[in-house]
Amino acid sequence: MTSVASQVIHRALQTGASDAECVFAEGEEFSANVRLGEVESVKEAGSKALGLRVLIGHCSGSAYTSDLSAAGLEKLVESAVGLAQITSEDPCHGLPEVGELGSVGADLDLFHEDVRDLPAEEKIALAKQCERAALDLDSRITNSEGGSCSSGWGRRLLVNSRGFQGEYRRSLCSVSTVPVAQSGEDMQRDWWFTIGRSFATLEPADQVGRRAAERALQRLGAVKVETKRVPVVFEPRAARTLVSNLFEAVSGDSIYRHASFLAGKLGERVAAEGVTVVDDGLLPGGFGTSPFDDEGVPTRRTLVIENGVLRSYLLNSYTARKLGLKTTGNASRSLAGNPGIGPGNLYLQAGPHTPEQIIASVQDGFYVTELIGFGVNMVTGDYSRGAAGLWIRNGELAFPVHEVTIAGNLNRMLEDIEMVGSDLEFRGAVAAPTLKIREMTVGGK
Amino acid sequence: MFFRDRYNLTPRDLERYLGEALCRGGEYADLYFEYQATTSLSLDESLIKSASQGISVGCGIRVLSGEKTGYAYTDDLAPEKIVRAARTAAQIAAGPGPVEPVPVNAETGLHNLYPAAGVALDGDLLAKLALLQRADQAARACDGRIFQVRAGYADENRHILIATSEGRLTEDFQPLARLSVLAMAREGPNIQRGMDGGGGRVTLEYFQTVRTPEDFAREAARQAIVQLDAADAPAGEMTVVLGPGWPGILLHEAVGHGLEADFNRKKVSAFSGLIGRQVASPLCTVVDDGTMPGRRGSLNVDDEGYPTSQTVLIEKGILKGYLQDKLSSRLLGAAPTGNGRRESYQHMPMPRMTNTFLLAGEDDPQDILRSVGRGLYCVTFGGGQVDITSGKFVFSASESYLIEDGHLTRPIRNATLIGNGPDVMTKVTMVGHDLRLDHGIGTCGKEGQSVPVGVGIPTIKVERLTVGGVG
Question: Taking CB atoms and an 8 Å cutoff, what residues of chain B touch A89?
Answer without folding.
Answer: 47
